[in-house]
Amino acid sequence: MEITEIINKTNAFLIEEFEVAPGSITPEADLKSTLGLDSLDYIDLVVAIEANFGFKVKPEDFQGIASFQDFYNYVIERLKQKELV
């Protein structure tokens, strides 16, 4: 899967799942505040990632994710690891 494809797919399910305006999702935007995430929303986010990309997410994976770019990088890296298996 190409990087642009991953970003577009990620944005699509984030917009649908968290009901945010497409224009509010930019690489440098803060993930938590833009999506209005609370602790329960993180569970929804994990479920959406696992359903859309087919890999398991651990709660500690989110510790280094602040921006959407961090999130994209995380998904891209996990997909690369998945392809190597």
TrEMBL record:
Locations listed in the record: Cytoplasm
O-(pantetheine 4'-phosphoryl)serine modified-residue sites: 39
Pathway the protein contributes to: Lipid metabolism; fatty acid biosynthesis
Organism phylogeny: Bacteria, Pseudomonadati, Bacteroidota, Chitinophagia, Chitinophagales
Post-translational modification: 4'-phosphopantetheine is transferred from CoA to a specific serine of apo-ACP by AcpS. This modification is essential for activity because fatty acids are bound in thioester linkage to the sulfhydryl of the prosthetic group.
Molecular-function annotations in GO: acyl binding; acyl carrier activity
Protein name: Acyl carrier protein
Domain Carrier: 1-79
Family: Belongs to the acyl carrier protein (ACP) family.
SUPFAM superfamilies, per the entry: ACP-like
A Pfam family per the record: PP-binding
Keywords in alphabetical order: Cytoplasm, Electron transport, Fatty acid biosynthesis, Fatty acid metabolism, Lipid biosynthesis, Lipid metabolism, Phosphopantetheine, Phosphoprotein, Transit peptide, Transport
InterPro entries reported in the protein's UniProt record: ACP (IPR003231), ACP-like_sf (IPR036736), PP-bd_ACP (IPR009081)
Known role: Carrier of the growing fatty acid chain in fatty acid biosynthesis.
GO CC aspect terms: cytoplasm
